[in-house]
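Subject: design request, 383 residues
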């Protein structure tokens, strides 16, 4: 097929930067360079001087034997792969710069010489080097095209290396943001009560699994088709809107609290609205693009007893099974008299067990013990 005298001039930065957000950057670079220089073999080489698994070769237009040849080349002390480390980052090198005869006599050189036509010439650039790792682009081409391609390749590799280095940095930031998003979700799920994050328009940005369960059954909170958080009780809903608006518009207030009574009139839920400090980073996920203040809605059900497993009490304080059962029962609101009836033991026996529990937990009063157990239950609450 006829080859163009100059590479196509389509803007290669568009697919590279798109790949930085949603795709494989290196594969995108291979596609872009191969399209610009048809009839060549394009390589992306990753080397890690400390980890064998960190070395890789990606190629477009090369033979199936290249990967095997690359692995063999890594073992040569004065070969093509070793000479690549001597090149300056961001400077285009030619085949005559990369070790002369050493670079032309190794496993890679033989694999390219066996191609039809033979790919005896190359130009490349190391576009990233950090610690023990480096990444390079290299384009192999036939000798009869040397006059045609040497200068265009030099210009092109300079440009695309800068774009590729930036795209790699963007991808790393994307990964960091994705990890931060996952961490935030995991931390929310550790909360022992329902938590919903809202923006200033009262629209839901994220919620933990407890809040999802509550909303799924239509209990206290709901989310409309527009993503706006509301209360299932109309009266409480009006108060919630007023409280949220006052908190949003205030320059000093950071917390608002409202109660949600049960239909029987008993106090059941407490809603705490919190204005969060700062603003999230722009990135991926539900918080992307949010620049105004964020708000958290925390829902606590006062009728639900705190839960604490006997295993935790044994591992933390060394409580026996009976002592742990006593501690858990007291945390749930039972009295010594109630426990004596349920367990069919004397109150004196239970008081002796309570004294042992307080000694092991280093508490002096029953109220202090309950406070300690409450904090422990909050930390170890199951989701």
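Subject: RE: design request

Done. Sequence follows.
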């Amino acid at each position: 097929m006829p080859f163009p005298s100059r590479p196509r001039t389509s803007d290669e930065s568009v697919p590279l930067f798109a790949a930085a957000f949603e795709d494989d950057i290196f594969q995108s670079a291979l596609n872009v360079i191969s399209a610009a220089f048809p009839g060549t073999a394009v390589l992306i080489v990753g080397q890690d001087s400390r980890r064998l698994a960190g070395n890789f070769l990606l190629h477009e237009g090369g033979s199936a034997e290249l990967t095997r040849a690359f692995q063999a080349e890594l073992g040569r002390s004065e070969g093509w792969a070793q000479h690549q480390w001597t090149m300056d980052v961001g400077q285009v090198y030619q085949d005559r710069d990369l070790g002369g005869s050493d670079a032309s006599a190794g496993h890679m050189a033989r694999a390219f010489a066996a191609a039809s036509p033979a790919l005896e010439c190359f130009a490349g650039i190391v576009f990233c080097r950090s610690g023990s790792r480096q990444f390079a682009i290299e384009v192999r081409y036939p000798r009869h095209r040397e006059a045609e391609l040497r200068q265009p390749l030099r210009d092109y590799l300079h440009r695309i290396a800068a774009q590729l280095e930036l795209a790699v940095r963007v991808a790393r930031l994307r990964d960091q943001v994705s990890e931060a998003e996952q961490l935030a979700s995991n931390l929310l799920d550790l909360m022992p009560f329902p938590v919903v994050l809202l923006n200033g328009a009262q629209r839901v940005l994220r919620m933990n699994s407890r809040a999802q369960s509550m909303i799924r059954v239509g209990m206290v909170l709901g989310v409309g088709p527009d993503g706006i958080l509301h209360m299932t009780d109309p009266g409480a809903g009006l108060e919630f809107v007023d409280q949220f608006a006052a908190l949003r518009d205030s320059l000093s207030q950071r917390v608002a609290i409202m109660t949600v009574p049960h239909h029987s009139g008993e106090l059941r839920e407490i809603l705490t609205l919190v204005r969060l400090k700062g603003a999230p980073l722009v990135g991926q996920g539900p918080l992307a693009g949010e620049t105004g203040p964020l708000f958290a809605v925390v829902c606590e059900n006062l009728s639900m007893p705190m839960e604490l497993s006997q295993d935790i009490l044994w591992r933390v304080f060394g409580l026996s099974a009976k002592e742990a059962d006593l501690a858990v029962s007291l945390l749930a609101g039972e009295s010594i008299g109630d426990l004596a009836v349920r367990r069919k033991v004397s109150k004196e026996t239970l008081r002796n067990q309570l004294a042992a529990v307080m000694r092991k937990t280093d508490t002096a009063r029953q109220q202090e013990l309950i406070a300690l157990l409450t904090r422990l239950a909050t930390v170890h609450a199951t989701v």
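The chain has three domains: 13-177, 191-301, 310-379.
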